[in-house]
């Protein structure tokens, strides 16, 4: 776990405030996955409950990275603290189920892609599966904090779901976490260089509903071997003052070094 990042996010003891949401956004080609690994490894090493919705990487990938950070996905799953959901596999099974009924134009119908008021929606079935997994985790370990993670929600847009369906899906997950006093961490990729109004409506919705927004971006000056990028944290936790902090960072094999803007040893 990266103590400096916890301090930037105003998080005490590595545990987010129950019922809140953290959005991690990677911009301009910057890899924000180290922030995601920070939250995940912190929960697993403490024996907390984790429900992981994988849309971007495999279970083995996260297990390999987790081992470097001292947190084994395999051990956590065997101990009943972790549920890893292969979301693309579940959504793909829904598509294959209806493929024989008609041609591929069904993908444009409400049966598979539209969330609201439709029991055939793949996203709705994914939500109910997540709900079941969360309830199962809390049944086994009711006294442990709960974290729900989505590793790249922008994948849902790439495979055909429109912004409104993603908004519904995320709203249901947010409500689920509020019900069970859990925390939601969402990662997304931003391909635009414009302002907020140019972003996808689904990303805007998650941004406005998040108590903590973490933006990771490459240096505007270009590549530097000693400074890999800049991280900006905007937090508005309940019962605390809103704040905005920015630092630069360098990713190492098993850790991340953070330093004030322009204060890298390579610069001074």
Any chance you could write out the topology, listing elements then pairs?
Layout: H1 3-9, E1 21-27, H2 33-45, E2 49-54, H3 59-68, H4 73-78, E3 82-86, H5 87-99, H6 122-140, E4 146-150, H7 154-158, H8 163-179, E5 183-190, H9 201-209, E6 212-217, E7 229-235, E8 243-251, E9 256-259
Parallel strand pairs: 1-5, 1-6, 2-3, 2-4, 4-5
Antiparallel strand pairs: 6-7, 7-8, 8-9
Helix pairs in contact: 6-8, 8-9
Helix content: 25-40%
Q: How many beta-strand runs?
A: 9
CATH superfamily of the domain at 20-199: P-loop containing nucleotide triphosphate hydrolases
CATH class of the domain at 20-199: Alpha Beta
Side-by-side strand order of the widest sheet: 3-2-4-5-1-6-7-8-9
**Gyration radius, in Å:** 19 Å
Query: Could you spell the SSE succession in H and E letters?
Result: HEHEHHEHHEHHEHEEEE
The average pLDDT value, as a whole number, equals: 83
Report the end-to-end length measured between terminal Cα atoms: 27 Å
Could you say which structural class the secondary elements and strand pairing correspond to?
A: alpha/beta
CATH architecture of the domain at 20-199: 3-Layer(aba) Sandwich
CATH topology of the domain at 20-199: Rossmann fold
Q: Could you tell me the strand content as a percent range? A: 15-25%
Q: What is the overall number of helices? A: 9
The low-confidence runs, each spanning 5 or more residues with pLDDT under 50, are 106-110
């Amino acid at each position: 776990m990266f103590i400096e990042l916890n301090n930037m996010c105003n998080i005490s003891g590595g545990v987010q405030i129950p019922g809140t949401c953290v959005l991690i956004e990677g911009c301009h080609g910057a890899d924000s996955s180290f922030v995601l690994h920070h939250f995940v490894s912190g929960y697993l090493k403490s024996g907390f409950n984790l429900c992981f919705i994988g849309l971007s990487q495999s279970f083995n990938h996260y297990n390999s990275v987790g081992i470097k950070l001292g947190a084994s996905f395999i051990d956590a799953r065997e101990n009943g603290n972790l549920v890893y959901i292969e979301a693309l596999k579940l959504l793909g099974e829904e598509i294959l189920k209806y493929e024989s009924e008609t041609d591929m134009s069904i993908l444009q119908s409400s049966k598979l892609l539209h969330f609201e008021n439709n029991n055939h929606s793949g996203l709705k079935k994914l939500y109910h599966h997540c709900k079941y997994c969360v309830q199962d985790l809390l049944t086994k370990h009711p006294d442990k904090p709960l974290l729900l993670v989505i590793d790249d929600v922008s994948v849902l847009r790439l495979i055909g779901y429109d912004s409104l369906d993603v908004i519904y899906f995320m709203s249901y997950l947010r409500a689920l976490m509020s019900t069970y006093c859990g925390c939601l961490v969402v990662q997304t990729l931003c391909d635009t260089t414009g302002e907020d109004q140019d972003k996808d409506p689904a990303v805007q919705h998650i941004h406005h509903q998040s108590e903590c927004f973490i933006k990771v971006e490459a240096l505007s000056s270009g590549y530097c071997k000693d400074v890999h990028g800049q991280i900006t944290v905007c937090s508005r936790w309940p019962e605390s003052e809103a704040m905005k902090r920015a630092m630069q960072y360098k990713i190492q094999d098993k850790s991340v070094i953070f330093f004030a803007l322009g204060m890298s040893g390579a610069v001074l």
